[in-house]
Amino acid sequence: MISPITRGCRLRRSRIAALGSYLPEKILSNADLEAMVDTSDAWITERTGIKERRIAGEGQATSDLAYEASRVALARAGIDAADIEMIIVATITGDMPFPSTACFLQNKLGAVRAVGFDINATCSGFLYALYIADGLIRANVHDKILVVGAEVLSKVTDWQDRSTCVLFGDGAGAAVVEATYEDRGLLSISINSDGSMWELINIPGGGSRNPVSPETIRERMHYIRMKGNETFKVAVRTLEDVALKMLADNGLASSQISLLIPHQANLRIIQATAERLNLPMEKVFVNLERYGNTSAASIPIALDEAVRSGRVREGDYLLLEAFGGGLTWAAALMKW
Ligand code: ACO
Question: Same domain for 174 and 262?
Answer without folding.
Answer: no
